[in-house]
Amino acid sequence: MRAIRGAFLDFVDDPWRHVGNERAAARFLPDGMLVVDDQGIILDRGPADEVAPRHPGVEIVPIADRLILPGFIDGHVHVPQTRILGSYGEQLLPWLEKWVFPEERRYFERPYAEAGVRRFFDNLLASGTTTCQAFTTAQPVTTEVVFEEAARRNMRIITGITAIDRNAPDWFTTSAEEFTAAATTLIEKYHGVGRSSYAITPRFAYGASDELLAACGRLKAAHPDLWVHTHISENPSEIRGVLELHGDCADYLGVYEKYGLVGPKFTGGHGVWLTDSEFRRLSEAGAAVTFCPCSNLFLGSGLFRLGRATDPEHRVRLSFGSDVGGGNRFSMLSVLEDAYKVGMLNNTQLDGSVDPSKKDAAEAERNKLSPYRAFYSVTLGGAEALRLEDRVGSFDIGKEADFVVLDARGGPSAMAWRTGLPAGGGAPATVEEAAELLFAIMMVGDDRAVAETWVMGERAYARDASGGLVGSTRGAP
């Protein structure tokens, strides 16, 4: 058992529910203590002068002049695309053909997959990410390696074999029968074991035949506790292709609804072009969407309607995702930076300055990503979207002790000046100061602001340590 002492900030509610008083959704301890048992579970928390007397003799790990938040949650990322992030010049469909399929094919071989997967998790930890929902490939070996490496690092992961059987090269696809057999084996071996959860993962409706989607539906019916992770309404050409293939469906979401895949553990990545009807149906189903601003901008996919997704009448559960390699950064801080910019562009479209007839002041405001809204979205909000809020996302007693330690002086030279903190140290004294500090970090900083990442009460990454990662086996394909 050990106790971590420092400045802690987490969330108890959705800041979008507290317009005008978002601080009410946050919980800040300028001098707090988090007690973790020997299994990595939070045993106690609160002001240090109250918690310490309850645990005499406990080992105390002081973390001074830093801000400690729950570990970041990446709701949508592709493990085998690490090496191609930032690949030039294409929108979604030709980008897949040119860059993604050839690289992912290399992960069909275990040695290449093992080296690449190690690199993937190294990048997550260096970015402060402790939980992710991830795509692998159409071959089970990649998924096996991902589960093995996540377990070795004791990280929480949701993943599964990625199903695709059309609109891709023959050497890349898998049949519905092969997919079902492989998924059944993987579910039995990994789902619910340690911190691993299985997701039925049709890559996207454009790459799935009726037979493959039906197979996914049968798996979900047989295993209702499984997650479903896919893509939805990312790119206009993709959407047209989906509707041509599924002429009996009025929209993209309807394809997944037809096969019984949409429900509380469903996540659709991107959702850039979702209609108002689709947003409402996702809300009613308790399903989630992952906002992937870095990828949406990099691939030219469009601007996700953050203000529509957060409509209090039809609120959709949201996680935020790096979507590496469409996204060009692992850092969830970079994701928040781009999300803020997308929100501001949407705000301009709705504030009446472009077209007064389209003015919607309330939706315009909901697009503005305050620091409270931002960091809620990559902690407790992400956990709620993935139905993991009973395990991660905040510092509640009984949850798993995953957290990230942020250093406001880490990163570009402009960071220290922007934050206004004294050169010799110091930490925020109030929740307002903490929020302002976090906004500076997300807009000016980068992954160098991540000083440490802890997983289940153990330090897994330390920026200032030799090699950064604690106990990591480094490797790159």
First and last CA, distance: 38 Å
Corresponding CATH architecture of the largest domain: Alpha-Beta Barrel
Q: Percentage of helical residues?
A: 25-40%
Number of strands: 16
Mean pLDDT rating: 94
Q: In one word, what is the shape?
A: globular
Low-confidence stretches: 472-477
Structural class estimated from helices and strands:
alpha/beta
Measured on Cα atoms, how large is the radius of gyration?
Answer: 22 Å
Number of domains: 2
Give an overview in words:
A hairpin with a 5-residue loop joins strand 2 and strand 3. The protein has 17 helices and 16 strands. It folds into two domains: 139 residues, Urease, subunit C, domain 1 (Roll); 314 residues, Metal-dependent hydrolases (TIM Barrel), CATH 3.20.20. The relative contact order is 0.16. Helices cover 36% and strands 21% of the residues. The two termini are 38 Å apart. The C terminus is likely disordered. The strands form two sheets. Strands 5, 6, 7, 8, 9, 10, 11, 12 and 13 form a nine-stranded parallel sheet that branches. A seven-stranded mixed sheet has the order 3-2-1-4-14-15-16. By secondary structure, it is α/β, with parallel strands linked by helices.
